[in-house]
Amino acid sequence: MVRSRRSTVVAALAVTPLAVAVLAGACTAGGSADGKSGRAHGDGGPGAAQRMPVTRLTPLTEADGYVPEGEGLEVSAEVPALERLDPELWAAVREAAAAAEAEGVEVVVTSGWRSERYQRFLLEAAVTTYGSEEEAARWVATAEESSHVTGDAVDVGYTDAADWFSRFGSEFGLCQTYANELWHYELAVEPGGECPPPATDAAEGS
Question: Cis peptide before 130, with omega less than 30 degrees from 0?
């Protein structure tokens, strides 16, 4: 996998503002399982592992679209997180990234396609972090409603890249979907069109 690292801005552009320890604990061999994860059903991906809950014995992997905390993917990386995106979305992101980088702005993808079990894990972690399902829903959609699970959304980094996308993304059909997630983009208009106002958060947009 081809990745880029810039630790100083991770907190600002994580998938959600979840505690690093919560995610790392279940994604590494030394972590512990989230007890609720056992209720998750399959995500339709190949292999029995894709239908298993996230535990220290069945951690999140590249096959789930998992991108380790603090890392970003080059937009042309041949990994499931990008290869399982909608092809038109992936092409638009690559085109936009090339234009941004021509202006000296580095663009990486911090999250793309996710398996259903990955999305469920993020939501359960958000409930733990924010203390309620209602507050967690502002930041993380359910697996059934997430545009990451369907391959229709990307999170871009780093801060300067998200700012560039907010100003020029519509030239490539890319729009910021949620006002509270400066990094989350989806194909929403024809290239050169005007982006609609973003929803307040994931709860409003679902």
Answer: no
Residue 141 gets the label, from left (phi > 0), alpha (psi -120 to 50) or beta, of beta
Q: Tokens 């339709």 identify what position? A: 44
Residue 58: partners with Cβ closer than 8 Å, 6 or more residues away:
49, 52
Least Cα distance to 184 among 110, 107, 82, 78 occurs for 110
- For 3-205, the fitting CATH number among 3.40.50.720, 3.90.550.10, 3.40.30.10, 3.30.1380.10 is 3.30.1380.10
Its sign, for the CA torsion 185, 188, 192, 196, is negative
| pLDDT, one tens digit for every residue, the chain (206 residues) | 445 544 333 333 344 444 333 343 444 333 333 333 333 333 344 445 556 676 767 789 999 999 988 889 999 999 999 999 999 999 999 999 999 999 999 999 999 999 999 999 999 999 999 999 889 898 999 889 999 999 999 999 989 999 999 999 999 999 999 999 999 999 999 999 999 999 998 887 66
pLDDT at 50: 54
* Other CB atoms within 10 A of residue 55 CB: 15
Q: Break the chain down into helix, strand, coil percent, rounded to 5.
A: 40, 10, 50
Name 6's Cβ contacts closer than 8 Å, sequence gap at least 6: 70, 72, 157, 158
- Whole-angstrom Cα distance, residue 168 to residue 96? 8
